[in-house]
Amino acid sequence: MPAIRSRSKRKPPPAGFEDIEEDLLVFNNKMKDAQNTPTDNIPKHQAQWPIFQISHQRSRYIYELYYKKDAISKALYEWLLKNGYADAALIAKWKKSGYDQLCCLRCVQTKETNFNSTCICRVPKADMKEDQDIQCVSCGCRGCATND
């Protein structure tokens, strides 16, 4: 007979969570809407773009609260990362020089591309042709190079 699970042993959120809880709920509602949007008439690769963009916005919001504005404590920041409110790997890239505007991790993974290079959205707009309109196939980004 399987063991009966007791209630969740998740630790309660640290102090200060109440201040940002409403904003996180807004992101959560946007994410649910994006996941429930019908994707019948759009290509498969474009169906996930809104989800990537909302995840990016939520992670950027938490990143800026902690690193730019010093509005949340380290304990709250670590709790948010641990409980999946933000993408820890993406935030780790944002802390590195040259990656501070990165849109998603797929754009810097060279193993998923044909020529073992980064995504087209990582190319600075100054290096592109004037009329060339770019858009990332992975997340729909139109350019996340640092010097744009």
From TrEMBL:
It is found in: Nucleus. GO terms for biological process: mRNA splicing, via spliceosome. It comes from the Eukaryota. Keywords: Nucleus. One of its GO terms (cellular component) is spliceosomal complex. Signal peptide: none annotated. Belongs to the BUD31 (G10) family. This is G10 protein. The lineage of its organism: Eukaryota, Fungi, Dikarya, Ascomycota, Pezizomycotina.
